[in-house]
Design goal:
single chain, about 5% strand, binds adenosine-5'-triphosphate, ABC transporter involved in vitamin B12 uptake, BtuC, alpha/beta, 10 strands, 42 helices, ATP binding, AAA+_ATPase, nucleotide-binding, six-stranded mixed β-sheet, transmembrane, ABC_transp_permease
Length: about 950
């Protein structure tokens, strides 16, 4: 090896080994706590500052300073964070999104604290702990990696650690002290952060912003290592270090020179971009914490105060006004986060990049340095910059289509860092770039007035995006992404819209900020500021426009004093606490879901005597009731849901207490038997007759406004249309030889079934049989490996969920999928606006049908009882005018009266031409409802037929299996 190659390799190993320590720390913390610690770099920076303080300022010996810093302070910070920040969050359920916001909060807090304590300037005199000799640093990194690997693999603590990572609750039940494991993980992770900081600080500029960011670029290797493998992390980081060094040997000429130089000094950023944007993502299951996006209504008085406060600086003069001009500009930038994060629920850590691009493009356009374009007046330059930056929103919008939570945070952070390093920090972009104010607005006061006008325009744009059909769809996507998809919302397009609009707003704010400062200053759009802005908007109410204005005033106002960092420290403290604020719709939904689960359990075992009673009821009464006769004489096409529901009522227990049959059985049992027989005769005629009618206006004499929040009744009775059917017959939904897999596991094998119109088809089977997977394949949320799904003759196997909804396939979920921040009526409106018919008038009909047209219609869905939420979900599905209705455990969490009412509605819908597929554990209900039952076991259909036959076979099998 030539001596140059050797030297460069050694230099690369030196950088790589410092970075390897970070990789090891990130992986260990993640493995022991499930938290990707965004604050890792900030801890490194604080430790470097403290070592410098001990040795340089106080004159301690290096060994003493290093001992205190690395063995006391660093692990201490980790244990404090575990005890007071992350343990309370894990007790609350360990929502990864909350821990993400909290770790960003810790980052911002430490950066702000360091700026407060040590100032914002860079220090060049940090003591050198290990000599520049790369072998020493490499030895430290390798020894540490080997030691940690050995502990994880061979010690009892390592086994406990792996158990906690796999399933914390199960590990605790198994007697493992998960808190101790987490505390050890945090202490070790912080120790490695401290070590990285003190090793790196002498060779880079030590300042509160630069070092943390440099360290966080290494997060790429933890992603490459899938947050698990230490050897992969260490080898990757060393390889990047060496490659980065070797690249410095190349000296191309022409346009490639600056690019290569940028790549060779930022190879870790390139790796971060590849890891975050191209590799399969990590941590995709979470959205933003609901408490962060919960909408708190803003009193009008608060707006009046805000307007007065924003007008106040017009009375200022001199430097005060110079500071004030930053507030409206920053407010516009923060409004972009209100759209993307607050309303759309998308984590975006890269808004600073769009703001910076807005300022840079404005400056280039105004200076006549933008390729291919003449010099433009400042305002025109600003407008064109906004237009040019808006489509760049796809840089983060595109990854957001397939990513959520941590993965999206990493992707947007990577884009922010990438733009900062490859665009803002390049000489060809920034050399001598000043930025004037528009003609006539040069003075601070005049410019402030112009900013207020632009802020008002931005507020109007934000308001328009947050209201109406688009606003409701955005809120639905934020509250429950798959629920929104199932309601027909085009989630991918909506995400792109949110990010593109967000980029445009950020560019406008960034350009205004640049004009305010009269220059393009890359430091003003540093990725660390992106984190600070995100944290500020989240803590002050992400879905609140007023919150954005307050955040802007706070950030500028608090940092205007002698020392910067106050605002960051304050925002950091609040962000650390954000996941722990009590209440909010999120909490209410969680409570509802927990209650639902509790209710579900007994129903799972409810089959038994009651099923047999229903399947072998006493003989029917000799003369059917007139209503029942009407039902069996169907095919004339002149009946609607109301009539059918009334028919159901006459057969149900709630039909007016008509007494007992001669055999002493409840009347319902006898009526059920008749229902099965009449169905057998009636349905074929209905097939030819057509589709179900859309739910019609209330019947004469209908009482509206009686819906209750208690959820004890399903008030379908007497509220349905008597309109004749107006549509052609609903097509059947069929599957052909369907096979579905999760990785290598085959969850469905060779499933062929038909869901015909006017029928209720049921799928039953034990847990894990594949029922929900079948549902996902039918609804478009899981792509089958083989086979087809057809709607009539049309192959819809590859259509996404929202497209299927728009064709008329609606679904409900096993776990409730309402939108908690929207009212009951808004929930249903989303279904009506986005579904097949897109008919707003369907809202009232659906609300009436499900008994939700009373005062409950105006209540937020959060906090309603399970029964009411099930009705909301069903009303939303029906409001879209579906032809096929897929119901996943619709009776879960309902009481007996609610189940009875639900059954009546479902029968009426089927009788009116709809095709229903029901997955249900409650075999009583299945026996009562279904025309055809498919029994699934281990991913296959093992029996099909009418319920009495199929369930009898199951009974017989149960009896055979039962011990004698
Ligand atoms: N996302 C997933 N990744 C891997 N395996 C999965 C996933 N979802 C389901 N499975 C597995 O696929 C099989 C079928 O699961 P599915 O949820 O479809 O069953 P199910 O009949 O609906 O059960 P349950 O009644 O409990 O809801 C199970 O073995 C389950 O563990």
């Amino acid at each position: 090896m030539s001596s140059l190659t050797y030297d460069l390799t050694l230099a690369g190993l030196s950088v790589g080994s410092a970075a390897a320590l970070t990789g090891i720390g990130l992986v260990v913390t993640y493995r022991s706590t499930g938290v990707l610690n965004f604050a890792h770099g900030a801890i490194a920076m604080v430790c470097a500052y403290v070592l410098r303080q001990c040795v340089v300022e106080w004159g301690w010996p290096l060994w003493a300073g290093a001992t205190v810093t690395l063995l006391v302070l660093a692990p201490g910070i980790g244990m404090l964070l575990e005890r007071f920040v992350f343990r309370p969050l894990s007790v609350l359920g360990g929502d990864p999104a909350q821990t993400l916001v909290a770790s960003i909060g810790v980052f911002v807090l430490l950066v702000g604290g360091a700026a407060l304590l040590w100032g914002q300037g860079a220090r060049e005199d940090t003591p050198e702990l290990v000599s520049a000799d790369p072998w020493g640093q490499l030895a430290v990194a390798l020894l540490l990696a080997a030691g940690v690997g050995a502990v994880i693999r061979w010690t009892r603590f390592g086994r406990e650690l792996r158990a906690v990572v796999d399933d914390r609750q199960l590990a605790v039940l198994g007697g493992i002290d998960a808190d101790r494991v987490a505390a050890a993980g945090w202490a070790f992770g912080s120790f490695t952060a401290g070590l990285t900081g003190v090793l790196l600080a002498p060779y880079v500029r030590l300042d509160p912003y630069g070092l943390p960011l440099l360290v966080m670029e290494v997060v790429a290797v933890a992603v490459v290592a899938r947050m698990r493998s230490l050897p992969v992390a260490v080898v990757t980081v060393l390889a990047i270090g060496v490659a980065q060094s070797q690249l410095t040997r190349l000296h191309p000429s022409g346009w490639g020179a600056p690019l290569l130089q940028a790549v060779s000094t930022n190879l870790f950023v390139v790796a971060l971009l590849i890891a975050a944007l191209a590799l399969p993502s990590v941590g995709t299951r979470d959205a933003l914490p609901r408490t962060a996006t919960a909408r708190v209504p803003t009193p009008t008085g608060a707006w009046i105060v805000a307007v007065v406060l924003f007008l106040l600086p017009l009375g200022f003069a001199g430097s005060d006004l110079h500071t004030s001009v930053q507030v409206p500009a920053l407010a516009v930038v923060l409004l972009s986060l209100v759209v993307v994060t607050g309303r759309g629920g998308q984590i975006s850590l890269g808004q600073a990049a769009y703001a910076g691009l807005g300022a840079l493009f404005t400056a280039l356009l105004a200076a006549g340095r933008f390729p291919g374009l003449p010099r433009l007046p400042e305002l025109a330059a600003l407008a064109l910059a906004v237009v040019l930056v808006a489509p760049l929103g796809l840089l983060t919008g595109w990854p957001a289509i397939s990513r959520r939570g941590l993965a999206l945070a990493l992707a947007t952070f990577a884009v922010g860092v990438g733009v900062s390093r490859f665009v803002f920090a390049q000489p060809y972009a920034i050399a001598g770039l000043s930025l004037g104010r528009p003609a006539g607005f040069d003075g601070d006061r005049a410019y402030y007035v112009l900013e207020l006008v632009l802020l008002a325009a931005a507020l109007l744009a934000t308001w328009l995006l947050r209201r109406g059909r688009t606003g409701r769809a955005l809120a639905a996507m934020r509250d429950h992404e798959s629920g929104a998809s199932a309601a027909g919302v085009q989630v991918p397009s909506l995400k792109l819209l949110a990010f593109v609009s967000g980029a445009a707003l950020a560019a406008l704010g960034g350009g205004m900020l640049g004009m305010g400062l009269r220059a393009f200053d890359p430091a003003a759009y540093d990725p660390v500021r992106g984190l600070l802005w995100f944290a500020a908007v989240v803590v002050l109410g992400a879905d609140s426009t007023l919150g954005a204005l307050v955040a802007a005033a706070l950030l500028v106002g608090l940092d205007a004093g002698a020392r910067g960092g106050v605002a960051a420290a304050l925002i950091g403290v609040l962000a650390v606490l954000v996941g722990r604020f009590p209440g909010g719709p999120h909490e209410a939904l969680r409570t509802a879901t927990t209650r639902l689960r509790r209710h579900r359990e007994p129903r799972l075992t409810s089959r038994g005597t009651r099923v047999r009673h229903r399947l072998h009821p006493p003989p029917p009464e000799p003369t059917p009731s007139p209503t029942l006769t009407g039902l069996t004489a169907s095919g004339t096409g002149a009946r609607g849901l109301e009539e059918r529901t009334a028919a159901g009522e006459s057969r149900g227990p709630a039909s007016g207490g008509q007494g007992q049959t001669a055999a002493g059985e409840p009347r319902r049992a006898a009526a059920d038997e008749r229902t099965w027989r009449s169905r057998g005769r009636a349905r074929p005629a209905e097939d030819a007759d057509g589709d179900h009618a859309p739910l019609g206006p209330p019947a004469p004499g209908d009482e509206s406004g009686t819906g209750d929040a208690g959820g004890n009744t399903m008030a379908a009775e007497g509220r349905l249309s008597t309109r004749p059917r107006a549509h052609p017959p609903a097509p059947a939904l069929t599957t052909h030889n369907l096979q579905a897999r999760y990785g290598t596991f085959t969850a469905l094998e060779d499933i062929t079934l038909t869901v015909p119109p006017t029928h209720i088809t049921a799928v039953v089977g034990p847990n894990g049989a594949g029922k929900t997977t079948l549902f996902h394949c039918l609804a478009g949320t899981h792509r089958p490996a083989h086979g087809q799904v057809r709607l009539g003759a049309r192959n819809i196997t590859h259509l996404p969920a929202h497209a299927r909804t728009r064709l008329g396939i609606a679904r409900t979920f096993q776990q409730l999928s309402v939108f908690p921040s929207l009212t009951v009526a808004e929930n249903v409106r989303v279904g009506a606006e986005q579904g097949r018919l897109q008919d707003p008038s369907a809202v009232e009909r659906s609300l009436r049908l499900l008994g939700l047209d009373g005062p409950v219609r105006s209540l937020p869905a959060a906090g309603l009882p399970t029964g009411a939420l099930r009705r909301v979900e069903l009303a939303r599905a029906l409001a879209g005018g579906p032809r096929i209705l897929l119901l996943d455990e619709p009776a879960a969490g309902l009481d007996t009266a609610e189940v009875t009412a639900l059954a009546r509605i479902l029968k009426a819908l089927a009788a009116d031409g709809m095709a229903l597929l029901v997955v249900e554990h409650d075999l009583d209900l299945v026996a009562d409802l279904a025309d055809t039952v498919h029994v699934m076991t281990a991913g296959r259909i093992v029996a099909s037929g009418p319920p009495d036959r199929v369930l009898d076979v199951l009974d017989a099998a149960d009896t055979r299996e039962a011990p004698a």
